[in-house]
Amino acid sequence: MSENINKLCERFRGFYPVVIDIETSGFHAKENAILEIAAITLKMDSHGWLHLDQTIQFNVNPFAHAILEPSALAFNGIDPENPLRGAVDEEHALDEIFKLVRKGLKEADCNRAVMVAHNAHFDHSFLMAAAERCKSKRNPFHPFATFDTAALSGLVYGQTVLAKACETAGIAFDHKQAHSALYDTQKTAVLFCEIVNRWKKLGGWPLVNA
User: What is the mean pLDDT of residues 107-123?
Assistant: First the structure.
């Protein structure tokens, strides 16, 4: 068995998991805007337990000519025109997030970031569309691989909705704060760590025949 088994780079075959949640102005990644984005990096202690590490969050200005669906804005409660949001352009938000992730990648000796998200295809498609729009040359995220906590929660807890999965896992969930990118990212990160650590507690990691 590897002496480095409790290092993050060994746990996910060199992938560096980063938890992301994105609030948008609709369902179409190339037409609708990112309005909020949050990311949380993860770390592993010397005993192989996964924990939350650093958090970064931005309110984001819609890109030029983005379609803002009234139903989406009503659902997430975001007013893109509110000057008190302190919003930044998506290029700035992505640059800062990617900078933090690349730093974490280097420190953890990992080779590629992988997005962790609840119903990850949705968030991943928006992140990649924004990176393409901004012509980001150093996007650290894998172009298609993700860790989807909806699928993992369905396996472990029999629940696929974030709030119900958290509640089943014993993680407090405030429905009034839901659909905030920062809050949902925090809860998704705690849930993912709980799932990974639960698997370790049950004897599923490290692999017996490793």
Answer: 98
